[in-house]
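Hi everyone,

Forwarding the result from last night's run.
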Amino acid sequence: MLNALSIVFAAGLAVAGTEPRYPPISAYLMDRAAEIALARSAAPPTVSARATVKVLTPAGYVVADQGSNGSVCLVLRGFTAPTYTPVQFRGIVYDPKIHAPICFTPAAVQDVLPYYELRTALAMEGRPPDAITTGIEAAYAQGRLPHRDRVTFAYMWSAHQHLGPGIDAWRPHMMVFAPYYTNEMLGGNPFGGPAPQLSDDAGTPFSVVVIPVDPALALAPPVP
């Protein structure tokens, strides 16, 4: 969902006309207990209560709480913007205020989570968006990332997600990792509406379909 991006932030980059730099990694880090609570708010307790939780550290994502159901919850940062991010939106990669709690179901843990962790690692090395894209493409082609040949799912139901200035929490939704899907395959539904829509990387192995759910299902993080 991170390509529902910050027009305000992107406009500032366009004026500057230069590639920005990443803030210090400390700007992206959270209090550990608060990050665990925010991560668990991504999915209903039937999923999140027994899920493994990972938190971001200077060395990347590490397990903070080992679960038992095969799901993994964590808080994505702007590093995990789509692989083929439009130029006008590439500033989202650098924004340390982006917090996108997500809970991957077991199949998505196998197929998709390594992709997001690699994007994070490449960004933490200081690579700009184009170099991240090149790194992802090479890893996928070389088999260092799992090939996606099935549809998998993740929850993004947190009421406290922040997907970009002017977007904020948007609405709770399911992430459907549907390789090579396009929006036309869903009926051409408009982005940001209540119908299923293609949000990321259309027509590629990394395509993401977003299915909004009832806003009443949005979940607040438990008090840590």
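The beta strands are 52-57, 60-65, 72-76, 100-104, 152-156, 173-177, 197-200, 208-212.

Cheers,
N.
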